[in-house]
Amino acid sequence: MLRQVAEGVLIHESEFCQSNAVVVHGRAGVLLIDPGVHGYEVACLANDLSDLGQTVVAGFSTHPHWDHLLWHARLGAAPRYGTARCAATARDRLSGGVDAVAKAAGIPEQVPLDLLGLITGLPAETAQIPWDGPGVRIIEHQAHAPGHASLLIEERGVLVAGDMLSDVLIPMLDMNAADPIEDYLAALRLLEGAAGDVDVLVPGHGSIGGADQVHARIDQDRAYVHALRDARVPSDPRVGPSAKDGWDWVAGVHARQLQRLARRSERDGTHG
Ligand SMILES: [Zn+2]
Known about the structure:
The chain contains six helices and eleven strands. By secondary structure, it is α/β, with parallel strands linked by helices. A seven-stranded mixed beta sheet has the order 1-2-3-4-5-6-7. Helix 4 packs antiparallel against helix 5 (211-229). The longest helix has 19 residues, at 211-229. The N and C termini lie far apart (47 Å). It binds zinc ion.
């Protein structure tokens, strides 16, 4: 079921990790950001759109993780975009075949994989998604995944954060990057600079936030990354007993991140 979160901006929530697909109304059809996740959910989204008499005229994937690279034949053959780095990374990871990725990533069986990752990279420095609708600014950064893009729909006061600024998921760093901590902090600074007039925050996973949540979540994510950097125990509601129902596994993600960072600093001979 589609739910309006701002004028001309609707979301479709998945049962998988509370993923949010985003629909933006344009002049000749809609822009669809990160559709997902289970087959029946994407079919429901396609039905909702056709009930509204809408067709999809453009798609966008915020980053090259499978749950953000999905599509379905029923959504049509509109061009699907991502940043150049996102598209290159997706191509690279899928070069060994979709089945291998599905197995390695543990993708649930109900997920349609036929059209996984078939996105066109927008040239680096592309400022806006090319489509006929309200301007959607691409805020590219390298936190969480290569070529990750958060999207700012200024006219509607909406920030589509991708896998940043979630109330349920901690910052999940791209551990393959040269400096994952600094990449993440730089991305938070970028979002802070861009999000001044945002009224609605849509994370890739988790609850929609109001104006008050934008800076609160930026601060919360920054505090978490600082704690991770300093190998401190974070006082973070998303980790530990205060985690929301069904999200206790996030504590395990936190433990693995700590471990990997410790191994990196051993390898690099740096301390703290
Ligand atoms: Zn992700």
